[in-house]
Queue: 3 jobs
Job 1
Amino acid sequence: MDILQTALLEMCRKRRNIFFYPEDIIREMFPEDWRHFLPELESLINSLYKRGVIEVEETFNKSLISINEKNSVKIRCIAKPKS
């Protein structure tokens, strides 16, 4: 498990059932260079979504979640991941 995934899951633990913007995590970790980590975050979000670990509040295309400076989604962790 990498540090970004650990930080995201920790945010889930803190927020419980509240949706949040995942890029807030990288903004906190890397205040100056957070934009450079958006592709890595997007990849992680898609992986966790496909595995049933997180849910997305609303998006037009749930098969591929896109995160960038102009487009974001809110996520939250699912208490018990889908099998």
Job 2
Amino acid sequence: MAVGADDEEGRKALLGPHRRQLGQLPGGGAAHRPGDALLGDPEQGDAVRCSDYAAEQLKAIGVRAAGRGEAVPDVETLLDVVVAPLMYRILFRPSDLSAAYAGHLVAAALGRTTPPPIT
């Protein structure tokens, strides 16, 4: 079944029994509707706010690190190399998420190593 960006019933059908579980997640915004964010929420409000918030937090962390004389990757690199893989694991493979994995992603973003292969 093809699901259009404005097809609420299609999104509900595609997410099926998981929709209720996703709605029970703590927090706000896109955390309540990750399936909608992935399928293309026509208003994009929550997903955009979440993305903007993450980027602002990364910028603030970067400013502090630069103030200490540390190397700081650009925000897009951090989103692609750290945030995106973490979000994927949170949504689809939470059992594979660990502090060691997150640390490895940060090291990769800083150019200290390569990211782990997806297994």
Job 3
Amino acid sequence: MIYKNNTLKHWGQTIRAVLLFVVLIGVSCKEAPKNGGTVAAKEALKVADQESEQTGTPLYRTSITATDIDFIRASDTDAFKSLAYVEQGAREMPGSESGELMDPGTFVFQVNFKEGKDIEIWAHSAFGTINAAKVYADKLGGRLGKLPLYMRNKLSHVVLHKGDSNAFAEDAGGFFVLYSENMDERISTNDLEETVFHEAVHVAFDLAHAKSKEWKEAQKNDGVFITEYAQSRPEKEDLAESAIFVYTKLTHPGRLDDKVVQWMETNIPNRLVYIEDLFEKTNKK
């Protein structure tokens, strides 16, 4: 389009940006099963692909629930070997609905892997019985096995609660917390593997990298965030939000739409290189 004057050019750019924003919002509000992408998602990527320069706008609302991308598939290989009940005893269980930190009757399970250290799963006594707790421990075991070895070895344990709250991680403590109803919802949308990965990134990398000078410099030089969630909490969520895109690009070439990869290379090149280097280095450990 040839603009007759600067005012017309300004309005053309404004309309274009508004259209991109509307399309992206439409994508972010739809949490459909990951079956290859909704029409709205493909339209958003089409608009993003047409931008030869930085868009200045996050590509998605969040990395997991607001995309149709199946980053980590149930059919992907994993290192899970077995799960066994250990004991019922007292454990610190942050995030419980009762608000009590200590749970004297926590159900403790141990997950064994084909390589790397074992990981304990602590299920709150609110599950009621060993069998009820084991149902959710079983849902988690294989998904822990899909984590990269380095990330899995950084985990101390995983806490399971009954309820529908959102997962969260305690990087200093080396664990993350999941809730039963939220797990079931994430399984129904093929998102639990990605949720486990996201929280494990917090545990494995946040302390050393999320506030580091090099990471902040990469953020500054890029100036754009891949999701709105990352943009809203740059010191806490940007690394975990970006990492799942980069990990999928590295380990499963072709799984991400070419337009997503192009957006990353154009808009977040410094963080792309930073995270690629991070995974390559830790894979050797």
